[in-house]
Protein: DUF547 domain-containing protein
Organism: Pseudozobellia thermophila
Amino acid sequence: MKKILIIYGTLLLAGVVYVNDRYGLMAMAGLKGMGLPAKTVRTSLELRHQNTNLVVDHSQWTALLKKYVDDNGQVDYKGFLKDKEQLNDYLTALSKQVPSNNWSVQEQLAYYINLYNAQTVALILRHYPLRSIKDIDGPWTTDFVKIGDKELSLGALEHSILRKMNEPRIHFAINCASASCPKLLNEAFVPEKLEKQLEEVTRGFINSENNTITRDNLELSRIFKWYKGDFANGKLVSYINPYTEIEIAPKAKIKYKEYDWSLNENK
């Protein structure tokens, strides 16, 4: 019996190590979508008709981003502290506007992406100053994201809602407050511009220093390792090729860069 327990414990530990390596964070707890709606993206997110009855106003978030985030996605957290209450007001407004199945997929995606990014900034501000989001206990597994009468974690928001919407470009839109993350866009994602914005952040990230791309060799961000299956069912070259000026060889060798978790702070 003792040997069986030892073997079971070893396998469990190996599973934990695997998940951490695959996803880059200890997000094994609290990954529940709480029944919140998440429509599946099936076609382009271009809006064919302008919707004048959009549910959520994200202009307050845009104003804060324009003020405290530069064009490279670096954040002035020290300055952001001065408008912490405005950020909290925006998050309170979001929490009262619970997504429903009546919302378009564009409205849902914009809402969840902005909520993730704004809550991440708020999390950093609650613990500022710090060197890394990983200095915080359970940043992705603690339930503090309020939507109506529900509370969920950042990990749940990402894995149980956003990833289920079949839109891999969300990985370049949400920001984990770290140097190797896709940059924090200094405007809110909005339904009427969502397709253009997602294309912009995806192309920008793929062609940034986070990836080194040649015809026969790829050194990629670990985002492509952690979430490989989200990108063209794991066919990374097929996914990346349309975003680069270099035509990548079908059998190009792939390696992954180390991930820099230091704070994305504008000093």
